[in-house]
Amino acid sequence: MILKERHQPPEILQLESLLQRVPIVHPRFPQWTEQLRRMSAGFHGEQRVDSLFYEIPIDSPHYFIQDLFIQKPKSSHQIDSVLITSRFVLLLEIKSISGELNFDPQLRQFSRTNKDGSVDGMNNPDDQIRRHEKFVQQFLASQKVSLPVIGVIVFTYPSSIVNSRPKNRIIIQSSGLPFLMDQLLVKYPDELLNMRKTRHLAGRLLQLHSERPLRRIEVPAGLRRGVLCGKDCGGIMNLNWRKWTCDKCSRIDRYAYFETLLQYRVLISPTITNSEFREFTGIQSVATASKLIRIANMPSVGSFKDRIYTIPEEIIKLESISTDLESI
After folding, report:
1. Which residue range(s) make up the domain with 255?
2. Residue 228 placed within a domain
């Protein structure tokens, strides 16, 4: 059973929005493009592992928790995948890294050698998964539960070649996940918890989860304004007759400005005023802006004149909006 699905990191929308609104000649444009490529590759790699995970038949009671984030007073744990079964707990550290990979057990260093011979130093995934193992072991002890905790490093690229590996650490390609599960189910045959206790344990761990704070980036001045077309045409959406129409590809979207509100949320601030909404979207009419904001049905505080609206992360879901678009 899946207790928590994996969702796209908000930083992907943040970078996509930034690249859509800064000129291609901006000196940091290539850097932001590479950041987006790496982040998107990592997310898609995690999704592929999820698909493999869900296809594996597991006879014992089991629960999946994806992208678990636990904030502690001075540190945090972000665990890519957790599988809680009645026999053991499996933790996955998922890496989408190509090239020749080397673990140095003495220096606790992890590096990648590229095709051109250059070497990149990276965070050691063995140390990362060790931290998570210790945390989950402490959590199990607090629940008075004794289960084996197994941490695994999963590489998603077939082009990842591991030349040296840390001792006693399971490292696999993502395609080997079903084989690994078969081995673990044979190695740990005993049901140590019943279904109710397994479900209770998974629920208690999930209660520790909190939403990871969005990593704010330095947004340059002079961002492109307007409600931009969601296609790759680069056009601007204009509001005519209660619908938004792209000036380049003629795409029509009644709620195109919702995406613009989400872009404002990840680029500028999670809150917005009427004047800020007008400045960012290019809408000049105060009355039109007020109607659009009312339709979005965002929570707000303050008086009519000084009202501040909070942009929900799920604003794109139409169930939460007002339906009086006809009044514009």
Report:
1. 237-327
2. no
